[in-house]
Specification:
The chain has 320 residues and is mainly alpha-helical. It contains 12 helices and no strands. The longest helix is centred in the last third of the chain and has 37 residues, at 238-274. The chain is globular, with a radius of gyration of 23 Å.
Amino acid sequence: MWIAILITVVASTGNNIGKALQKSATANLPRLTLDSVVLRRYLSSKEWVTGLAADLGGGLLMIAAVARAPERLHTAEWAAVIVSTIGTIGLGATAGADPDPSDAKPLSKMRIAVVVLMFTGLAVAGIFTRLRSPTKPARRATRTSAVTCGLQAGACFGLSAAACRTGFLLAQGAGSGLWVPVGIAFSALLTSSGFVIQTRGLKDSNTVVVCTCAAVSSMLSGVAVGLLALGEALPTTQQGRNMRLLAWLCIAVGVATLANGQGGYKEFRSTLFSILPPPVVSRLPPKWTASFRAVHQKGELPMHVSPALQKTLSGKVSTV
């Protein structure tokens, strides 16, 4: 287990270094498109290629760490992991480039205060989490606690990067380099707290669930702080906004399914069927409606299913 934890730490470091190198390289590169000239410029940039290799290497190490886990997931749970990963990739793809520094609006003191207080509260919470070690072995954590550990650890990782960025922004705005070490100190404290929480989750819970929720929470918390406090903008095009919305939806569905296991998948499937109009359900394959009917007979059907849909399903199943 400790080897898997060490691999996870190295993988996370590789991901962070890779993203930082790619971010630094894009300052001298155009916006990434499928144009051959633009792609050649990206591939000819040693800094960007090195960052991409470090990022991909961290991802491969994370897969290796998960492969060492003794737990085995059901097919629906693996599908939830894949959906969450797709949503996270979509969220990163719609992040966009930084605006021109000459057009950037200065951060207000209120926003800065909110960010600093948020970091302070999370850092103190991380310290209490570190010090509050149980005196006797705890029982095996439930799936809900695995999701909670993953989300808390991921939030610490995401806010750690935001803390470092806030320190540099405050140093630029105030003209004092003192804010840089302050931001780095908060970043280190949040990162260490995140690893403590994640380690406890990996020890007592499902490794795949913890790692997936941590990655999702890290991305979401970073985007949320960037939008609310650091002045980052949403995608400017309608296609970009639609892609961002779809990414959030994939993440929400994936995490909700992981949080409830097979039951979460059945509930999602039942809810999806319940909102479909009866004419659409009548055209579905008989196996699908029969499976939905079996869930209904077990009492797992959502309460909001319409009577018309129930009647349609009853007639469809009786003919199977």
